[in-house]
Structure formats: structure tokens, C-alpha cells
Amino acid sequence: MKKGSVVIHNASEVVTCSGYKGKAGAQMQDLNVLKNASVIVEDGIITKVTAEPIDLEYFLEKDFKVIDAKGKCVLPGFVDSHTHFIFGGYREEEYNWRLNGISYMDIMSRGGGIINSVKGTMATSKEDLIQVGIKRLNSMTSFGVTTVEGKSGYGLDLDTEIKQLEVMKELNKLHSLDIITTFLGPHARPAAYKQDPEAFIDFMIEEVLPVVDQRGLAEFSDIFCEENVFSIEQSRRFLNAAKKLGFKIKIHADEIVALGGAELSAELGAISADHLLQASDLGIEAMKNAGVVATLLPCTAFSLKEHYARARYMIDQGLIVALATDFNPGSCFTESIALLIALATNQMGMTIEETITALTINGAAALDRADQIGSIDIGKKADLVVHEFPSYKFLPYHIGVSTVEKVIKNGVLILD
Ligand code: NIG
Ligand code: FE
Asked: Which residues bind N-formimidoyl-L-glutamate per the record (predicted)?
């Protein structure tokens, strides 16, 4: 068999999500679906997408893998553009406290929250983090994810931040999924800096950021900009320092309190601002004008028992909206794309077309990779998922259940 060369033919629908950049506003509705169509892949790259009959004999002779997708739909692999999937230990107690009405911020102010996962991650060896990372990546694959972003931020010191990033670099080699890394050193205030966040930001800028940069361990930098975590001014200082070194910028913005993180993301030219539950109208307008992707994380809002971000308003205002899981041990312990689709369509007023766009080409845009992944277009990586039903309209309808049947990564069948 010719590795990385595949023909998927007979598909009831090929949902191309066609495009080479993020889709804004009303464009999100257009999935560009081909009926009874085929996709041809050579050496891991998509070379043809067609609703015309194809000469199957030719491809069989040339030793292509042939997949008959009769009665199935084919979508681009999902891009989960915001996760914290490398961590040690769990916080099941905290989730149960939340079910009983204690808030995420209350748990944090009582010494729980992110700091708990920092302890767990410090206490877990690199090898163990790699092993559990493989399991989590396998689970993501089963939901049709082919590219995932992963953040550090459960170290808050030099060694553990580096350890987390190195684990992800290693996993990128070991596992078929592509992992894009983000340095999130300022994720919480460690005990030693509790009363002096400025000094912690100095430490991150002077001691940690340069090492991450020199060792090429992360493409993005991110900060948890939130009341009682890091202020707008501290976030601006850290992100500007990261930008100077050439990092691309993300920001955890306006999740619990409307601090103005959305406005800051526009000012700094961030690639994305994420969460945005409390983002102001002016912040949304500024993001639109600056082309910042709004990455919404409905599973987190659900898990925190918060209201959802204003997806409908943002799309109607013409933003590029992406959706991601935010998989992490605290605010959102789920990698379930099936749950995410259920929440986006049933609770946030997004159509399934907008939801799929948000998980594919716009997820790719949130990682600055819309020219390489996120749609079934000629020249892009062959990251393709065969779903078990004839139409993408089954994805929200089969509530909370993965419809994924086969996953093809770089033209190689990795889940069958
Ligand atoms: O995106 N909000 C900050 N960071 C994560 C939560 C991390 C944690 O609770 O461990 C988030 O929700
Ligand atoms: Fe997050």
C-alpha cells in the first residue's frame, strides 16, 4: 500500500468547509457540501475533491488505499484549538463541590483550583505524563480531532513549565495527531507570589519566556487575564514581551468578569481571544476590526454552570468564531466534541453549519493554520473523518454521541 495515498469514494456528502482563512459571520453558514463525491489523497495531501465519477481501477493499480464511504459523510478532522490536556492528578472533589453550588473562583480563593493541578503535575514524572497524554490523544481521535492545541500552565516555575512543553513536543513525535503548543506560564499566582503578581510577571518575562523561546518549545503565549489572577496591565506587559520574542498571542479573556480582555486582544493583534462569556459589545467590535478569532468554550460554561458566551451576537456582528473543548482537570474535564456540538447547537443558538465551521476552518484560523488544515481543499493536509451517517445533520441529532467511524491523518488511516 502506498503510504499516505487514499481514495475515499461514494460518500453521500463530502462536507468540504472549503477555505484558506477563517470564516467571518454569515460565511460560517456555508459548508460547501458535495453529494456523492470522492476525495483523492497523494502522499498525505489532498489532490482532488470531486462529485464526478472517478476511475477506481486506476487508483487500485497504483496501490492507493480505497475507502467506500457509501451512506457516510466525510468531514475535515476537527481542530481542538484550546486545551490544557497535559496535567497530573485530578480534581473530582472540586467538580462535586461545584455541583453543590460552590463557585470556581470560591474554590480558587480557598487554595484549590489550578494550584492543585500544579502540585499534581510537579509530582508526576515526564514518562507518566507522556503515557496519560497518549490515552487522552487517543480519546480525542475517537471524537474526530486531528489537530490539538495544548497549553502549559500547571508548573508556574521554570522546570515544570518546561517539562509540560517537552512532554507535548515528545507526544507530537509519538502520536499521529498534530500538537501545537502554547506557553501559559501566567496561569495562576503561585503561593510565593500571591501578594505580588507583578514580581511573578517579571519572573515569567525574565526567567521563563526566554528559555521557552530559545528551546523552541511553544508557538503561542497565553495568560489568564481575570480579576484576582492577572490584570489587564499585567497581561499587556507579559503578552508584549512574548510578542517581542516572536510568539503569537492568545488570551484567556473576560471569562468571569468583564475586565476588557477582548479589547486587549484587539490592541495586541492576538490570533485569538478565548472564553469571552462577559465580553463587552465594544470588545467584540474591536476584535472584529482586528480580525481576532473568538474561541468559545461551551463545555467550560456548562461545567461551571455559567451562562454561555454570546455566540449568536458575535456571529451576527461578523466575527470569526471558533469552538474548542478547553479540556482541563478543573473547569472542564471533558474532551467530548459530541457534548460540545450538543451545547453549541442546542444551547448557544448556533446552527450545525456554523458549529462545524467553528470546529474546522475557524479552529485552524485560531491556530494560524487555515492555509494548511481545517477544510477539504486541494493542497491541504489530508486530515479526514468518515462519519457513520449520510449527512452532517446527524451530528447534532445523535445527541452527545460520537458519530466518528474512521479517522485519516496525513492520508493514513489511524482509526478504523
Ligand atoms: O481555561 N480559566 C483558566 N484556565 C482554565 C482552567 C484551568 C483549571 O481550572 O485547571 C480554563 O478554564
Ligand atoms: Fe483554558
From this structure: 154, 328, 330
